[in-house]
Specification:
alpha+beta, 5 strands
Length: about 190
């Protein structure tokens, strides 16, 4: 949907408009005469997940749900192991009827919706944070799981507690980073809307 929305840069050259985004609402599509396309990522999404199942590991460690809230185009995935004892508190708050800062979903929704104002520019800033959040989770996964499997053999209760702390830590960090990202985007782009 972004291919037909162009503007001119400082040299007068045609470039993709900063407001061109693959999730335009009907009013924008009508204004810019853009034909609707069904993208894989969807502005109406509330979550996306990828499951990882590894039979050679204990169930508590081998099963992982990589969860991302809101639009898959702007949300990172964080791991939640099958052996965790609970979800992070902000992930248990259903705030979809009203904006709430104690609801994890809103941290990601905030960014997804904000990006629609200047998608071409903002998505680059989002990608930096997103890649860092996921990169830390992927980079630490093998070593962490190796350690947990050893502990699980002799102390499954302790291993589950560690899985919980690990999953909570990554998820809570992602939420905090996205709240901060929202503030940073408002600051950076406030005079460009």
């Amino acid at each position: 949907m972004t291919n037909g929305v162009y503007s001119k840069d400082k040299e007068g050259k045609a470039v993709k408009s900063p407001v061109a985004n693959p999730f335009m609402n009907n009013e924008y599509k009508e204004l810019f005469k853009v034909k609707s396309e069904r993208t894989i990522a969807c502005a109406r999404a509330t979550y996306v997940h990828v499951t990882q199942s590894r039979s050679w590991l204990p169930d508590a460690v081998g099963g992982v749900v990589w969860l991302g809230y809101d639009n898959p185009a702007t949300a990172p995935h964080t791991p939640f192991y099958c052996g965790i004892e609970s979800m992070p508190k902000s992930y248990t708050v259903d705030g979809r009827q009203k904006f709430r800062r104690d609801c994890a979903w809103w941290a990601f929704r905030y960014i997804g919706q904000l990006c629609y104002l200047r998608y071409q520019d903002m998505v680059k800033d989002v990608e930096e944070v997103w890649k860092d959040v996921e990169g830390k989770a992927f980079a630490g996964q093998t070593e962490f799981e190796k350690k947990i499997v050893e502990i699980y053999r002799t102390d499954p209760v302790r291993a589950k507690r560690m899985l919980t702390e690990y999953s909570h830590g990554l998820a809570n960090d992602a939420v905090a980073r996205y709240w901060q990202l929202g503030d940073d985007l408002w600051t950076k782009y406030t005079y460009k809307f």
